[in-house]
Here is the input.
Amino acid sequence: MTFPLVFFSVFFGLYGVVLLRLLWPRPALPSLTHYPRVSILVAARNEATTIERCLQALAALDYPAELLEILIGDDASTDATWAVTQRFIADKPQFRLLAIGQRLGTARGKSNALAHLCRAATGEYFLFTDADMALAPGWVQAMLAAAPAGVGVVTGITTAGGGLFGRWQGLDWLFGLNLIRLLTDCGLPITAVGNNMLVTRVAYESIGGYEALAFSVTEDVQLFTQIVAQGWHYRNLIDAQTLGISVPQPTVRHLLHQRKRWMRGAVRLPWQLALLFSSYGAFYTVLGWPGLLPLPTIGALLAGKVLCQTCFLAITLRQAGHREHLGVLLLYEGYLLAMSLAVLAYTIWPNGIQWKGRRYRWAEG
Here is the structure.
């Protein structure tokens, strides 16, 4: 019994430290005293059903319209993405729609679309988001406030909406991004997330742009790694004004495609984050090992994990200015276990990576 006692003592002790760290007071973001020109960049491929929601949110941003340019790159869509976007932006001069054509350098797919958008952008700051995202009105100001001199990349917070399946996906986002934020606060460069990200022009140009990077299906991880390697600082934010709400993956199959691509990027993340995530798998391995623990102890340990996890998510939701029902938080554990096993199996399965109607080999990640 010595090993499980030590393991679970460390597991719950670490959770306690994380929860205490979450409650540690943080200074508020400063108010902007200077309003620079900003370029918002949206790469879109086959987003006819989601992009208008994104564009409506961008049109409602609380930032001087004359200092905003919003560039949408249609990446060879085969649906009505172009027509939907063109109709929406017809009377909005801050918007511009570009057709993405030839490849630039080593860039492919989404990274190629972003490379074109960055070349066309005129702002001092690039703000990246996805066509299935809706950002808060104060998004631009809050992201800029977190990027003083020396900071090259800033990541906001993301969740997902929709029904129960979508809201559980939203909890995935919140849980993972707040763990990343905690490690970032400790001075560890982890990653940025490309659906809610600011990069300064000078930081982007210091690495030569997407067209100079080795191709990756997780282009945001690649960009972050290269920017940090050039000596730029980084910030990860949990704040109501930096909250983006994504359209969730509609089915388990779509979610598995997304998570396999994420897993390809995860193999390049620092060991500290990998250790935190793998501790979840170790928890169930030790908990369910045949004959190791009596049933009452298993029940008590599982209840303790659900309690800690629910507290973590409740604090994160409060910090992000978002709400969720307690029942959804408590039932998240079952979803998390089932999806973790499914994602692990699907990642191991040798069928490549599918993304926006394109297929990539695992080695291309």
Notes: The chain has a mean pLDDT of 93. The chain has two domains: 8-21+269-349, 38-261. The radius of gyration is 21 Å. The CA atoms of residues 121 and 211 lie 15 Å apart.
